[in-house]
Amino acid sequence: MEIQKPYLLFLGDAPDALAAKVAQGIKQWHPEYCVGQYRMQGCNADCGLEDIDIPTAHAKGAKTMVIGVANRGGFISNAWIKVLQEALEVGMDLAAGLHVRLNDIPELAQTAHKFGRTMFDVRFPTQDFPVAAGTKRPGKRLLPVGTDCSVGKMYTALAITDELAKRNEKVTFRATGQTGILVSGAGVCVDSVISDFISGAVEVLAPANDPDHWDVIEGQGSLFHPSFAGVTTGLIHGAQADALVLCHEPTREHMRGTPDFALPEIDQCMQLNLAMAKLTNPAVKFVGISVNTAKLDEAKAYEYMTQLEKEVGLPVVDPFRQGVSRIVDNLLA
Length: 333
What we know:
Blueprint lengths: L6 E6 L8 H9 L4 E6 L14 H6 L4 E4 L10 H13 L2 E4 L9 H10 L3 E3 L18 E7 L6 H14 L3 E5 L3 H7 L13 H8 L7 E5 L11 H11 L3 E6 L17 H12 L7 E7 L6 H15 L3 E2 L7 H8 L1
Parallel strand pairs: 1-2, 1-3, 3-4, 4-5, 6-8, 6-9, 7-8, 9-10, 10-11
Helix pairs in contact: 1-6, 3-4, 7-8
Organism: Celerinatantimonas diazotrophica
InterPro entries: DgcN-like, DgcN-like_C, DgcN-like_N, P-loop_NTPase
Protein name: Putative NAD-dependent epimerase/dehydratase family protein
């Protein structure tokens, strides 16, 4: 799935900044992909880009309008349809990571067909994948794993990719979720792949490469989450990772969305992830821990990370507060 760049980011009528987190992620990590933003009346989100209309965006070179809104239920409202049709009519493709497919909306499908445009429903893979072989392949791979869902695995992967690139290392970010795909412009949404083929899909996504090339693969779910451990397992085996980074949010009282399940202990989580990863790469190791300390004040955040670093003997950082340079130092050591 290769989405044409640059983008016009569609914020629609997003009620708040969080609802436009997809657009914000694209703007944060790849501002060079963005020609501007399109906001409808009542929009309360702002990515800090120029507000431009669709003809102006097309004249500036925009090739795809990306729906940067992640609304509850993942639907496309009737109010959006005329705007999306206008983008198709002027010559842009559309891309979205919502639960509702762009291609299932008759008005959009008809307009796209009439004007020869492509609509990317990035949550839904468009190719078949093989069963994984597990055969050792050249190249290096890093995979963030989590104590829970939504603890910063994508942010950590993007930050590590950026840091490696700054050091002139060969590196590619490999997106495995809808937001990561829209941020990077390519990838496969593994939670929509049939379970027998998840590992094979990751082998295709991060194939054999130069011996000194790093693929930084976006992590998903958690081995300890009762809903998503299966996706995580397939991803771990297909990644054949040389290096793992544990991602953690320390203030949670239970696994996200499942109050009957407590978060695992850090050591317990690391040991199980290593055991699973060693099936396809016996030499795998942890190189650091990435902690989301957004809900802690600065003093408590640094106190927590200092103590955890003493316990695990690995670099412990908050990538938002500190960056990931210490993890990358350890990775390349």
